[in-house]
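hey so u asked for the seq, here:
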Amino acid sequence: MLMGSIIYGVKYKLPEYICTFLVAGGVSTFALFKSKAKSIPKPNAPLGYSLCFINLAMDGFTNATQDSISAKFPKTTAWHIMLGMNLWGSIFSFLYLFAWNGGGGVEAVTFCKEHPDAAWEIVIFCLCGAVGQNFIFLTISKFGSLATTTITTTRKFMSILVSSVWSGSPLSAQQWMGVIMVFGGLSVQIYLKWQRMQKRTVKLRKL
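ran it, structure tokens below
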């Protein structure tokens, strides 16, 4: 959302900003204020936060660019964007693995030759990822990157939450506050969308 607003000048309504920040803030609160049951010895917090920030910035730029491409070129389908992303990703990965010193590409190929079962597992993993990407890019093309980001963030958050509860790890008070923020933001988003749908229905009936 921020990258789209800053770089491409996309404008959102105030409730959308509030809901997005509630979800993002809730996820951040849940991740930062961990329970005391488990602790990482000597964590490199600055490096971790820096990598997370870079990841979020690049992800936001990618999503905003995909929205911009879809808006400028209406004939662009989800599979066009998917092809472009995977093509360039494959090129960069190939160059890093085999052209960069110490990339590990040769070692990976040797490992797969020595362990064909692992190679098949990798192929199946890639096929599953390709199938999943269809849904992601279709969601982006139909509903935009903001909805897609909300869905993926919620899915990740639910995975962490269920994992914590399933493993018996107690949640701190701050983490429960993060849970409330996430579900509060999502609930408001759903309510606002329901309101818009009701208004559209009323307008159509009047016509």
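The first helix runs from residue 2 to 7. Residues 2-206 form one domain.
lmk if thats what u needed
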